Amino acid sequence: MKEKNQNIVFKWTLRFRYIHILIIGAILLSIGLSVGLGFEKLSNQQSLDYFISTLSFVFGIIFIILGFHVKKDIENTITNLNL
């Protein structure tokens, strides 16, 4: 495998680290919104639905913020390594 191809694979391997964090954050955020707005019911107890929607919404926001922070670090690393 040529060095150019290895660099491309290495870049996308690094990028996958933040892409999956952003995807998990988006999934949690959408679950929180759909349960919170009443489109989905996960249980018969309304208070449990609110609790689950609040937690998944908060963790979704946290994962998205963490994903963008990791993205910034990884893109700086890729730039510094001249890949």
Note down, in words, how this protein is organized.
The mean pLDDT is 90. The chain has one domain. The chain has 83 residues and is an all-alpha fold. α1 runs antiparallel to α2. 83% of the residues lie in helices and 0% in strands. The two termini are 16 Å apart. The protein is built from 2 helices and no strands. Keywords: Membrane, Transmembrane, Transmembrane helix.
Summarize the structure.
This protein has 83 residues and is mainly alpha-helical. The chain has two helices and no strands.
Q: Which key phrases capture this entry?
A:
83 residues, mainly alpha, 83% helix, elongated, membrane, transmembrane helix
What's the number of structural domains?
A: 1
What overall form do the CA principal axes indicate?
elongated
Instruction: Please bin the fraction of helical residues.
Output: over 70%
What are the secondary-structure elements, in order, as H or E? HH
